[in-house]
């Protein structure tokens, strides 16, 4: 490809889709020099990547090392040992065992039982915005909902929740190139180890006094299964860490997509049966996660391109969501779209286990927001300074709800 490709600037994150289209049509398997990795932009190669044994998810050392997070110090070693246990970093057969362990507690029925508590939580969160007639959708709505949802499910003590919000944000900092300094890197190691130490302590308390929460259920799942010993703490860390920023961004992206397409918002107001369509279409067109990645563990070929062992491959799921061969009129936001087989939650064995929770959160959040008569963007323009190839969403989004 002749002109250089930008995958790092704020303007790219504000609108990555023209770049994805260029890559998809001109170089669907593209070697990106600055990161020395391959970039995939078409669904066919992304699916092949997730099915091939030549590409691995056992990549904690290489991924954290590549971000400069690992030194020779004890904190680095501790962090790597912990992260290497996360389900996200496993291949079969261990991956299959851990997925079963997680999904046993995280069932659709359990989530449906949680719905009324979630609806009440959303309503409480919206109180201030309702009263004031305006709010920052990120800080006043999406963040507290995302945080408290996961906190309620794991019964994290109320007083400690702000700490979890800080921790979850801290852990993502090195993915943004602009803040990837030595200070940030050592603070990430500290955060990871502090959060893990906190959870170990909480787990011991929960072991002594179990409750009706996911930590207690993970502990029960370990019992009598020697091959699962210790997993409750690792997979709690994983679920809590993975569920906060992703959900915050997706709730915000959904509101923004509807604001940008008032005719679709009107259609949704007129027919709440379109709720699910609106959520799926926002996830397709404005996903909060742009990509997944795998490490090549054996020389191979993908879409006609040679991929050497040791290279990372970043698969742009957000680009596959706009492939015109799969989605007619791919850039059009259409809440009536069916089928809508977007790949925002990933493909294959690692498909996001939080998908049903996110859908529940988005449904309850939208249901509450639709009770407000009108939404209007106000004041401060939004930006994508906090975004990276993993997580994308505006840093703030000020919205007003005029009465008429
Ligand atoms: C809109 C919100 C979300 C999006 C877009 C999203 C996206 C994804 C994607 C694409 C993957 C696959 C990664 C891969 O193939 O390597 C994934 C995995 C994962 N997600 Fe989510 N996620 C979201 C919310 C959540 C929530 C709320 C939770 C927890 C409650 C969660 C927990 C996880 C976990 C534990 C994994 C690892 C699964 C595995 O490796 O088998 N996610 N997510």
Structural features, described:
By secondary structure, the protein is α+β, with helices and mostly antiparallel strands. The chain has a single domain (10-400), classed as Cytochrome P450 (Cytochrome p450), CATH 1.10.630.10. It is 52% helix and 8% strand. It has helices at 10-14, 17-26, 43-51, 60-66, 74-83, 94-105, 108-132, 137-153, 161-172, 182-208, 214-222, 231-243, 245-260, 262-270, 275-285, 317-320, 355-369; strands at residues 29-32, 37-40, 55-56, 134-136, 292-296, 300-302, 305-307, 312-315, 376-377, 398-400. A five-stranded mixed sheet has the order 1-2-8-5-3, covered by helices on one side. It has a three-stranded antiparallel sheet with strand order 4-10-9. Strand 1 (29-32) and strand 2 form a beta hairpin. Helix 7 packs antiparallel against helix 8 (137-153) and helix 8 packs across helix 13. The longest helix has 27 residues, at 182-208. The mean pLDDT is 94. Belongs to the cytochrome P450 family. Pfam families: p450 (PF00067). Keywords: Heme, Iron, Metal-binding, Monooxygenase, Oxidoreductase. InterPro entries: Cyt_P450 (IPR001128), Cyt_P450_B (IPR002397), Cyt_P450_CS (IPR017972), Cyt_P450_sf (IPR036396). This is Cytochrome P450.
Topology diagram in text:
Blueprint: H1 10-14, H2 17-26, E1 29-32, E2 37-40, H3 43-51, E3 55-56, H4 60-66, H5 74-83, H6 94-105, H7 108-132, E4 134-136, H8 137-153, H9 161-172, H10 182-208, H11 214-222, H12 231-243, H13 245-260, H14 262-270, H15 275-285, E5 292-296, E6 300-302, E7 305-307, E8 312-315, H16 317-320, H17 355-369, E9 376-377, E10 398-400
Parallel strand pairs: 2-8
Antiparallel strand pairs: 1-2, 3-5, 4-10, 5-8, 6-7, 9-10
Helix pairs in contact: 5-10, 6-11, 7-8, 7-17, 8-13, 9-10, 10-12, 11-12, 13-15, 13-17
The chain binds protoporphyrin IX containing FE.
